[in-house]
Design goal:
By secondary structure, this protein is of the alpha/beta class. The protein is built from 5 helices and 4 strands. Strand 3, helix 5 and strand 4 form a beta-alpha-beta unit.
Length: 114
């Protein structure tokens, strides 16, 4: 099982100054649509899955503020695995796990060495 990890977690919200717009959020979702399409072509050519995993904040709201609409990504089946991680904990794990269960997408807890 080979996958591609798209990590946008390093973006610090304070660099943005404010939440991203719906248009910018849509652009990021479009990027995932294109990447997912390429992954599907690679999987078809190889004859086995090519999984896409994302590592994001444990907060659905914080992800949204950064431009990552997890409901869209999971709802459109654009990613295969979600890992909640970060330098600080914002929400209980069950928030992200519940979202994963809603869309039948595995969610894992990522650990960060401090």
């Amino acid at each position: 099982m080979i996958g591609q990890r798209i990590s946008r977690k390093r973006l610090d919200a304070s660099m943005l100054g404010e939440d991203v717009s719906d248009e910018e959020r849509g652009q990021i979702s479009d990027l995932f649509r294109r990447v997912s399409g390429v992954a599907e072509k690679v999987a078809a050519r190889r004859g086995r899955p090519f999984l896409l995993a994302i590592r994001v904040s444990d907060s659905i709201g914080y992800c949204r503020a950064l431009g990552i609409d997890l409901h869209t990504l999971l709802g459109e089946d654009l990613v295969d695995i979600v890992t909640g991680s970060g330098y600080f904990k914002l929400d209980p794990w069950d928030h992200l796990v519940t979202l994963g269960l809603q869309y039948d997408t595995p969610v894992y807890a990522g650990m960060v060495a401090r």
